[in-house]
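Hi W., the magnesium ion complex you wanted:
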Amino acid sequence: MSEFSLIQRFFAEQAGLPGSREGTEQVSGLRVGIGDDCAVLDLAAGEELVTTTDTLVSGVHFPEDAEAELIGQRALRVNLSDVAAMGAQARWFLLSLTLPDEDENWLEGFSDGLFSAARQYGCSLIGGNTTRGPLSISITAFGTVPKGKALLRSGARAGDEIYVTGSLGDAAAALGVIGLPDTWGTIPGSQKEATASLIKRYWQPSPRLAEGLVLRDLASAAIDISDGLLADLGHIAKASDLGAELRLAALPQSSALRAAVSNDAERNVLALAGGDDYELCFTVHPDKVSVLDGEIAEGRLIASRVGRMVAGGGMRCYDKNGQEVSFDKSGYQHF
Ligand SMILES: [Mg+2]
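Structure:
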């Protein structure tokens, strides 16, 4: 199969792009798609483009024998999480795929997973390329946001309340069993369902795009939690020249996590330092807290208030008695 026919069969047709056999579907804002040297994107007046890129390498970011469909799902979802963290609307993405061989079953599964996530989040493939080599997937995602409205890490002020969406620690708890099929058999029956739900959180993280749009006018700073709450909130603190205080008892934890990990301290470590949740952490100025809490009460946002930004540096955690608790793990470090 030539590179052209591979792209055509597994990607261009699913993307509904001009130049594809069934390319009748119009992609919003795409003036020129696959088939020219570059895609040409049409931005509306008053819109800014946000863009981010991420690479997943086989054996490093996912097990070598992982299901292709799950890899496709996850690759796009983790990129869109960054778009969500900017308060932007997801629009388009580019795919660069390095393949060891032309395994049609693998490509079909990968393409199914990728486009199922693309449809779910309203993001269209607009171009890319393939090369031969060890399996890796690079995606560059693009979103749009009204001019000046992108949520930055640097916008927090002392006294701002800290929130996180959804729940924390699920994906990190799943990491213990992913890629270890032998472990699966040793999990007690009552915990299998909980564990399956944790594993789904790892493979199919939910980029909080709808939440990001709600937060655009309410949050002072935002980040997505890819490396753990302490590490990622630490980025907001550093960029905003502040410190942060967290209440351990307020950290949102799912019923699946509680069922799978009974020890409170272990769950807190997963929630604070475990990566891969792809929830949003954001800060809200006291003037906007009542509006934000109204959005939560009315169900437009699932989020929990977990702490406060403070003057000076450092990250501190407190238990329910107000005692400071220290952690030696501050989250996953890349290097
Ligand atoms: Mg990020």
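Residues 68-85 form the longest helix (18 residues).

W.
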